[in-house]
Amino acid sequence: MKKNYLLWLFMAFLPTFLYAQKWNELSKTPQMGWSSWNKFQGNINEEIIVGIADALVSSGLRDAGYTYLNIDDCWHGERDMNGFIQPDPQKFPKGMKWLAEYVHARGLKLGIYSDAGTETCAGKPGSLGHEYQDALQYARWGVDYLKYDWCNTVNINPKGAYQLISDALRAAGRPIFLSMCEWGDNQPWRWATEIGNSWRIGPDIWCSFDSTRVFPTYVQYSVMDCINRNDSLRQYAAPGHWNDPDMLECGNGLSVNEDRAHFTMWCMMASPLILGNDIRNMSEETKAIITNRELIAINQDTLGVQGLKLLSKEGLDYWFKPLANGDWAMAILNSTKKDIKCEINWQNFNFTDTQVSQRSTSFNKYTYQVRNMWTKRMEGKTSKKSKKQRTFIVPSHDVVAYRLIKQ
Ligand code: GLA
Description:
This protein is α/β, with parallel strands linked by helices. The chain folds into 2 domains: 269 residues, Aldolase class I (TIM Barrel); 99 residues, Golgi alpha-mannosidase II (Immunoglobulin-like, Sandwich), CATH 2.60.40.1180. Helices cover 29% and strands 22% of the residues. It has 11 helices and 20 strands. The mean pLDDT is 96. Bound molecules: alpha-D-galactopyranose. The site of alpha-D-galactopyranose has 9 residues, from loops.
C-alpha cells in the first residue's frame, strides 16, 4: 500500500519536475542570437527575418552558437475578435507559425517581443490583460523566446507583472525563454531570479563607445556606460539568470578596435550575446570578431561567473573571469583616447574572488600559459621565475584578451 502511494506521488510530480528542469536548461549559459531592433527598429518584415535566418546558417553564426532569431517591436497587427494577437498581415503575410517552422527547420529558435503595459514602446498592442492569452498564442506558434518590455506601465507593479507573464508562459506548456526588459528601474536582480532568464540592467544601448546620449525624458547608454553599470551587479548573475547590458552594436558603425573591445567585454561579463547588425551583409572584420570561438567559450563557460574589474591603473582596466576548468580569462581594456603602454607582472594579480566564485588566481603557486585570444598566439607563462616582463601597447578603445591556461 505504502509502496503504491509512493509510486503514485512520484508519477504525479514527475511532469512538474521534468518541466522545471526543462525551464532551467534554457539559461544554463547566457543566451546567444540576433535581434532586429538595433539595426532595423520597427522596419521589419518576413523577407528580412527569413534572410537573417538564412544568413545565420550560411555565415556560420548558428554553428558558433547564435541560435535565437528574435523579432523585436513592431511585428504586431490587431487582436482578433477573441482577443488573440495576430501579426501585421502586410509585414508577415505567412504568419508566425509558418515563420517558426521555417526557423526551426534551420536549427534556430524564434523569439518574439511584447510589453507588460497597454502598448509597446513603439505603440503596438501590449500584453496587459492578455497575458495568458498571449503566452498561449506564442506557444501555439512555436515561439521559443519572449522579450518583455516595460513601456506604458503606469500603476503596474513590476514584480507582479513579470511574475504574471512568467506564470502564463509556464502554463502554456512550451519552454519559452523570458528576457525581461525593465531597464533595471526596479532592481530586478533583487527579485527576478526565479521569474526570468535574464534582465536588462539599464537604458537602451546606442552605437557609441563612450558618449551617453541624453534626450529630454530618457538616455541611451554607450558601450562604456553599459560596462560601468554592470560592474557592480556581478553577484546577481548565475546559471539560470543573467544581467543583460543590452544587445550588441558590433558591425553597426563602431571602429574595429571598439567592436573588439565591446565584444570582449560582453564575453567577460557573461552577458547575453544578441547581435544587432545586418548579418546578411557584414564585413569580414565584423564576422571575425563575433565568431571568435575562444571568446565565445569564455562567455559560455559553464561556471557561469560574471567577470570582475580587479584594478584600474593608469588608464587601463584589468578584468578577470574564472572558468570551469580552473583557467582564467583576463582582459585589459583601454577606454581612453590614447594608446597606453602596459607592462605585466602576474604576481601583482594574486587575488581571490571572495564575492562570487571563491576562486583564486594563485600566480605565486601555479603557472598558467598565456594565450592571446585575438592574435591566437601563445605569449609565455605566468611563472614567478620568468623574470622577463612583457611590455606592449593597448591601443585606444581596444583590449588585449588572454586565456590563462592552468598547467
Ligand atoms: C525599448 C527596449 C528596446 C526595444 C524598444 C522597442 O526601448 O528597451 O530594447 O525593444 O523598446 O520599441
